Amino acid sequence: MMLADEFQSADELNAYLDSLVQGGALQSASVDAAVVESARRFHRLGAVAKPEQKFVLGLEKKLMDSTLSVATQRMGIVPPTMPNANGHLRLPNEVATDAIKSNRLKSILLAAVTAVCIASAIAFGAYRLMPPGPPESDEIPAPVVVVQSSPESVDPDFAECTVTPRTADQAALRGTPAVAAILEATTMVESPWQEGVVVPAMPEQHLPQGEEASAEVKTEIEATILEMVACRNAGDWERMDALYSDASFLRVYGHLDGPLSAATPEPPPAPIAVPAALDMRVLPDGHVGVLLSHDLGGYGLRQFLIFVEVDDRWLVDEVVTVKRNYESEGLTPNFHVILAGDLFYEPNRLVVPEKPEAYLQLENVGEVPHSFVFEELDIEIYLSPGETKSILLDVPPGEYEFFSDIPGQRAAGMEGVLVVEPYGIPVADVPEIDCETALVMVATPEVEVDLGTAMVIYAPATTANSTPVAWQEGCD
Amino acid sequence: MAKKDRQAFAALYRAFVEPVYRFCYHRLGTREAAEDATSEVFMKPLASLHTHQSGRSFRGWLFAIAHNVVVDSYRSRRPAGPLNAIPEIVDLAPSPEEWALMAAAVQEVRNVLSELPAGQREIVELRLAGLTGAEIADVLGRSPGAVKIAQLRAYARIRTLLNDETINISVKRAE
Questions:
Q1: Which residues in chain A have their CB less than 8 angstroms from residue B40's CB?
Q2: How many CB atoms lie within 10 A of CB A90?
Q3: Of the candidates A363, A353, A340, which has an alpha carbon nearest to the alpha carbon of residue A416?
Q4: Which DSSP helix (H) or strand (E) runs through A290?
Q5: Which of A71, A286, B75, B101 is the most buried (most CB within 10 A)?
């Protein structure tokens, strides 16, 4: 526990250090004189390290002469929606095929190139669909880039991407009836990260279980993961594709026409580190499931890769985003969660009913500090990586914008809206629906509110379909 | 506009290149790494000047970028051991005498820094780079109160370490 005099000493030392860095030497009566003298001496020593004049002048010339014009051109560009966190970007058929042929998409994709440069991670599929961009050599490096990492990970060299690319015959399978069957059989859910994109996702406790894989299998799968990251960091998507099974490859790209990759591999600006394999389990069908410490897009959210052995090599057959299950963590419907990742919030629009004792839990799942600033509510919360804080949602109904005020993060997309809706809507204001429709809706309610003679069902609050409906008792 | 921006950025560069370099040097431990990181730190603001919010400390914003660059650099370099275990010769000064004095002083700072817990060390390194307490809180995304308490403990620890070093040096000289 902190003592009052320690707080006072901390304040005064802070004031002394502030004056020290500004060239003064404010003295403090309450701070230990030996501490003050040590700080002064330490700062004097610390100032010894200086850059060479040659380096200083060279960098200044480089900055002023060659890069500023490019930077000026870039000013004002605001990144669009963050790319998908999953390793695979699965665009709906109609969106991908129609848009890819249009000039409009070209501009969208070019904007995405910029976003990818600014953002901390890249979805493999989206990147590979882009047309060849302008040469990078004359461009300045991207703004702050955060590379997802883990203590166990290593950075593979591009040279470790050696797998033979897919043949033209394999690529030609795209668009065949067999592919349509695969697509039909795949259960997809809407991506929590990007509107209009579907990905497979499930809570961790629902992931298929199995016995621990043998050491030999583990080694072989780790080699595949390492090569995936090497190919991804090299921008060599042709070889990257060859590390997925045919079924997986076709599920992702089977509905697309035309070339999938730029002619020349172009390394993305933000390399990712190799995620640690937290466990490898042999599934009942002989596949091997691997729970990764973070996703291959670099967002820090876990992925579950399912590998299949093909010709003595383990290839990725499915990529599953591991969803959090808040109920299993003891969080009630009155307990709402917003995650702050590296340059995104999830969700970035949260609709909650106004309730007494409702809490908002804020979690930083990223690798750098993030903040939640609700200007209207005069709330500023700063979270270190991995830190979680909760606040009591004692606010009237309304829309409250929030954002991260850490430099650069808001411009990169870290902003959202918290919508607090009135609770206990009068029954008279709620449209009645017939029993049949109500019973369909009640199958997946998120919130049920008993209002006496009627029951109000809120559709999942984070979707657009959040209009309450009611039916008279007795339907069931 | 471009010309005006160039002039403004040149002034900012000259004001901050040394403290940014110093911060990078203390974090990364070699001149080459510090130069690379410093270059990167100043390249990034060029591309994202529009993201700097007026009214905020430019220095804090710049060091937030420096902080991220250093973290990235750590990941890519993955040193095998702590910085004070790297047997690097510091090449900083023109004359052998000055070189020796500076190298010893820098080494002493690095030795002391390596003894601090990571959170406290980061605060002290930003202090050495010339940031105020409020700016450090901004850069690290921590509350000003938490930074004050952490640095009080850090400097208390530094006092002990410096005294220990002084004693050790005295003993060696006596021998």
A1: 141
A2: 23
A3: A340
A4: strand A288-292
A5: A71
Minimal CA separation from A18 to chain B, in Å: 5
CA A133 to chain CA centroid, nearest Å? 24
What per-residue string of b and e applies to B42-58 under the rule 16 or more CB within 10 Å gives b? bbbbbbbbebbeeeebb
State the DSSP string of A307-364: EEEETTEEEEEEEEEEE--TTTTT--TTEEEEEEETTEEESSEEEEE--TT-EEEEEE
Q: Report chain B residues whose CB lies below 8 A from the CB of A149.
A: 75
The band of A159, judged by pLDDT with boundaries at 50, 70 and 90, is confident
Residues A397-445 have pLDDT tens digits of 788 999 998 877 888 788 999 988 765 444 444 455 555 555 454 444 4
Residue of A42, A118, A273 lying closest to B112 (CB–CB): A42
Residue A74, class by beta-carbon neighbours within 10 Å (0-12 exposed, 13-18 middle, 19+ buried)?
buried
Looking at the DSSP bridge assignments, the partners of residue A147 are: none
Question: Residue length, chain B?
Answer: 175
pTM: predicted TM-score of the whole model, two decimal places: 0.35
Find out whether A311 and A160 touch, Cβ atoms under 8 Å: no
pLDDT on residue B84: 29
- Rounded to whole angstroms, the Cα distance separating A30 from A5 reads 9
Look up residue A429 and give its two tokens: 């204001």
Query: pLDDT value at position A91?
Result: 23
CA proximity to A315, closest of A225, A408, A196: A225
Whether the per-residue pLDDT at A117 is higher than 50: the answer is no
Report pLDDT digits (tens) over A241-268.
889 887 777 666 655 555 555 445 555 5
List of residues 6+ apart from A239 with CB closer than 8 A:
A161, A162, A163, A164, A165, A231
CA atoms of A397 and A378, how far apart (whole Å): 16
Q: How many whole angstroms separate alpha carbon A12 and alpha carbon A387?
A: 28
Measured between its terminal Cα atoms, the distance across chain A in Å is: 56
Residues of chain B falling short of pLDDT 50: 1-4, 54, 77-95, 166-175
Residue B88 near chain A (CB below 8 Å): no
Tell me the C-alpha distance between A181 and A109, whole Å.
29
Tokens representing A283 are: 């599934």
